[in-house]
Amino acid sequence: MAYDEELAGRIRAALSFTDGVTEKRMFGGLGFMVHGHMVAAASRNGAMMLRLDPAQGPGLVNGATVRYFRMNGRELGGWLHVEQAALGEESALRAWLDRGLAYVATLPPK
Fold first, then answer.
1. pTM score of the predicted model
2. How far apart are CA 45 and CA 108, in angstroms?
3. Residues 6 or more apart in contact with residue 38 via CB below 8 angstroms
4. Interior/surface letters 1-24, b for 16+ CB within 10 angstroms, e for the rest
5. Does residue 42 carry a pLDDT above 70?
6. CA 13, 64, 81, 89: dihedral to nearest 10 degrees?
7. What pLDDT score was predicted for residue 74?
8. 101 to each of 1, 8, 12, 59, 74, how far by Cα in Å?
9. Which pLDDT tens digit goes with each residue over 47-59?
10. Distance CA 28, CA 59 (A)
11. Using CA atoms, how far apart are residues 89 and 43, in angstroms rounded to an integer?
């Protein structure tokens, strides 16, 4: 198992009423795209990678359960690593996904 299947199922269910959702295996996880733009990914340890408006990041990062996603030793401003503890309730997961959906809705079509 390369990614947390339970989290992937929760994300899938939360996005089930969203138009244009596709899934793609990438970076050892399962990415969820909306009209070609990645919104979130389920990782192997139960955490979620989330795309959002880079301006929102500083207000959400707490260093414990939410931090900037790192790739090749570099923090990516428009991407968060959200630990499983911050995704406990369905309402919490949905609130995170809503941030991502709001941001990708502002991006030009692919």
1. 0.92
2. 32
3. 31, 32, 51, 104
4. eebbeebbebbeebbeeeeebeee
5. yes
6. 10
7. 86
8. 27, 16, 13, 18, 24
9. 999 999 999 999 9
10. 28
11. 18
